[in-house]
Amino acid sequence: MRKTVVVDQDECISCGLCIESVPEVFRFADNGKSEAFDQEGAPEEIIQAAIDGCPVSCIHWKE
Ligand code: SF4
Fold first, then answer.
1. What is the Cα–Cα distance from 17 to 29, expressed in whole angstroms?
2. What radius of gyration, in Å, describes the C-alpha atoms of the chain?
3. Which residue is closest in CA terms to ligand 1's atom 6?
4. What pTM does this model have?
5. pLDDT tens across 1-59, in order?
6. DSSP string computed for 4-50
7. From 27, 58, 61, mutation site for ligand 1 pocket: most ligand atoms within 8 A of C-beta
8. Domain count, the chain
């Protein structure tokens, strides 16, 4: 099964980087933090780039 991407919202600083780079997967939730709303929105390597680019490293894969 494909891995699931999750945002640790306690750590997210709402910089918007992941949402700008992969809007097909990430968006701002009502609480102003990022959330992964569409797991199938982009290929894994594109999501990985967003994970690597998060300044506080709060996006993770969950097996
Ligand atoms: S890049 Fe990281 S800190 Fe910035 S909005 Fe996305 S999850 Fe939050």
1. 14
2. 10
3. 18
4. 0.95
5. 679 999 999 999 999 999 999 999 999 999 999 999 999 999 999 999 999 999 999 99
6. EEEE-TTT-----HHHHH-TTTEEE-TTSSEEE--TTSS-HHHHHHH
7. 58
8. 1
* CB-CB contact of 30 with 44 (8 Å): no
Q: Are the C-beta atoms of residues 15 and 53 closer than 8 Å to each other?
A: no
| pLDDT at residue 1 in the model | 63
Q: Domain range spanning residue 32?
A: 4-62
Pocket test of ligand 1: the residue of 5, 6, 19, 28 to mutate, having most ligand atoms within 8 Å of its CB, is 19
CATH for 56? 3.30.70.20
Q: Which atom of ligand 1 lies at the shortest distance from residue 57's CA? A: 2
